[in-house]
Amino acid sequence: MMDNLAFIWILIIGFSILMYVILDGFTLGIGILLPFLKEQERNIAMSVILPNWDGNQTWLVLGGAALYGAFPLAFSTILPILYLPLLLMVLALLFRGVAFEFHLKTKRGRKLWDGAFMLGSLSATLIQGLMLGAFVQGFEMAEPSHSLQWLTPFSLFTGCALVCGYTLLGASRLILKTQANIQAKMYLLAQFCAVLVGFCLIIASVWTYFVHPFAIQAWDKSGYIILLPFGAVLMLSGLFLTLAKRHEWLPYWLTIGIFLCSYTGFIISVWPNIVPYSITITQAAAPASSLTFMLVGAGIMLPVLLFYTWYSYHIFRGKIEQTISY
Questions:
Q1: Residue 323 pLDDT more than 60?
Q2: For residue 320, is it within any domain?
Q3: Residue 2 to residue 304: CA distance in whole angstroms
Q4: Cβ distance 69 to 286 under 8 Å?
Q5: Candidate from 13-17, 175-179, 202-206 with smallest mean pLDDT
Q6: Is residue 322 part of a domain?
Q7: Are 89 and 124 in contact, with CB atoms under 8 Å apart?
C-alpha cells in the first residue's frame, strides 16, 4: 500500500515538472530569443507568451508543493543544498514577471524591459539546468549544506544545454504561432539550435558515464535504455527534415519528443532515488494516511488544472498576426 501511494505521488510530481518544462520552456526560450527580433517582432513574440504564461508556472508550484507534502524528507534534504540556486531562480522568475508587465504598459522604456525579460528568462533557464546537472551527479550528504556542490563543470554544461533546448522549443513555438519575417528567422535559428542540442545530447550521454557510477548502474539494469538515444536521434533527424521543408506543426512536436526522451533518461538515471543517490522514494515518503488525504485534493485539482491548461491553449490557438495586450 505504502509503495503504491509513493509511486502515485512521484508520478504526479514527475508529470507536473514535465508539464512545466514543456509549457513554460517555450516562453523562457522566446524570452532568450528576443535580442534577435526587431521591435514589432518582439511585440508579436510577447503576444505569443501573453495568454498562457501565468498558467504555465502553476505546474511548477504544484510540483514543489507536492514534493513538500508527499516526500518531506526529500524536501528537507534537497532544499538546504539547493537553497541558493532555488532562491536565484525564483528571483529571476519574479524579475521576468515584472519586466513582462512593464513591457505591456510602457512605450518609452519598452526596449529596456524587453532586455530585462530576456535576462530573467536566460538566468532562470541556466539555473534550472544547473539543478538538473546536480541531480544527475548526485549529492554528497557529508558535505555542509552551504557548499556549492551544485556548481560543477557538469552542472554548468547542463545549464548551457538547457538554454539551447529551451531556445529550440521557443523557436519552434514561434514557427507554429507566427508568419512572414519572424517565422523565417525562427526557421534559421531553430536549425542552429537543433545542431547545438544534438551536440549537447551526445556530450551529456558520454559525460554521465564519468559523473556518477550509480547512474550507469541504472542504465545497465534497464534493457530499454537503448530506445531513448535511438528515439532522440530519429526525432532530431525528423526535426532537421521538417525545418528544411518549412513545416509549421511538426518541428514543435518533434522538439517536445526530444525533451521527453531526455526526461525519461533522467528518470532512469536516478530511479528509484528521490535524493540521488542516497534516499529512495519509499524512504522519503510521508505516512500513508497523509499521502491518502492529499491524494483526494490532487484528484480534484489535477483535472481542473488540466482542463484549464487545455482550454486556454484551445481558446488562443491559431496564428498571432498583431500585437495583443490587456
A1: yes
A2: no
A3: 26
A4: yes
A5: 202-206
A6: no
A7: yes
Residue 308 lies in a domain: yes
- The reply to whether 325 falls in a domain is no
Q: Which domain holds residue 233?
A: 2-315
How confident is the prediction for the chain on average, in pLDDT? 87
Q: What H or E segment, with its residue span, contains residue 118?
A: helix 110-137
Q: Which of 252, 243, 161, 242 is nearest to 199 (CA)?
A: 161
For 318: left if phi > 0, alpha if psi spans -120 to 50, otherwise beta; the answer is left
Query: pLDDT tens across 215-225, in order?
Result: 666 666 666 66
- For 77-98, b/e burial (b = at least 16 CB within 10 A) is bbeebbeebbeebeebbebbee
Residue 124: HSE in the Cβ half-sphere, 13 Å Cα cutoff: 29
List of long-range contacts for 180-188, beta carbons under 8 Å, 24+ apart:
181/41, 182/37, 182/41, 182/44, 182/45, 185/36, 185/37, 185/41, 186/33, 187/243, 187/246
Helix (H, G, I), strand (E, B) or coil at 274: strand
How far apart CA 84 and CA 90 sit, in angstroms, is 10
CA 73 to each of CA 6, 27, 215, 241: distance values in angstroms, whole numbers, following the listed order: 13, 32, 22, 46
How many other β-carbons are positioned within 10 Å of the β-carbon of residue 159?
21
Which amino acid is residue 217, in one-letter code? Answer: Q
Total count of domains within the chain: 1
CB burial string 31-64: b at 16+ within 10 A, e below: bbbbebbeeebbbbbbbbbbbbbebbbbbbebbb
Q: What is the CATH number of the domain that holds 119?
A: 1.20.1630
Cα angle: 321, vertex 310, 48; to 5 degrees: 25
- Is residue 78 predicted with pLDDT exceeding 60? yes
CA separation for the pair 183, 321 (Å, rounded):
11
pTM: 0.92
Residue 80, H or E segment: helix 72-105
Write the single-letter amino acid at 159: G
